[in-house]
Amino acid sequence: MSDELMWFTSSYSDTEGSACVEVALAWYKSSYSDDEGSACVEVAACPTTIHVRDSKCPADPHLSFRPDAFTAFLDTIR
């Protein structure tokens, strides 16, 4: 589990530093991930979106799901 929050600046914020709003995601590593850096999947949950990423490449794009779609996915793979 990552103790660091990943901060995103709101699209309504300007580049001059005024009206800045930031939102944070806390990423949690899958219990199936090993300690040697392979097979690492991390998840960050928000009220309307579940984000999934490869922890070895945190700056790369990640997948986003609606909570109901993510729950259905988890139910299917169990």
Describe this structure in words.
By secondary structure, the chain is of the alpha+beta class. Helix content is 14%, strand content 32%. The protein has one domain (5-77). The protein is flat and about 45 Å long. The protein starts with a strand and ends with a helix.
Protein topology:
Elements: E1 5-9, E2 22-26, E3 28-29, E4 41-45, E5 50-54, E6 63-65, H1 67-77
Antiparallel strand pairs: 1-2, 3-4, 4-5, 5-6
Which features would summarize this protein structure in a list?
alpha+beta, 78 residues, 14% helix, 4-stranded antiparallel beta sheet
Helix percent band: 10-25%
Shape: flat
Major beta sheet, strand line-up: 3-4-5-6
Topology, number of strands: 6
Structural class: alpha+beta
Alpha carbon gyration radius:
15 Å
The poorly predicted ranges are none
Number of helices: 1
Amino-to-carboxy terminus distance: 22 Å
Count of discrete structural domains: 1
Specify the biggest β-sheet. Answer: 4 strands, antiparallel
Would you list the SSEs in sequence order as H and E? EEEEEEH
Q: How much of the sequence is in beta strands?
A: 25-35%
Q: How confident is the prediction overall: mean pLDDT?
A: 76
Pfam families: DUF397
Organism: Streptomyces harbinensis
Protein name: DUF397 domain-containing protein
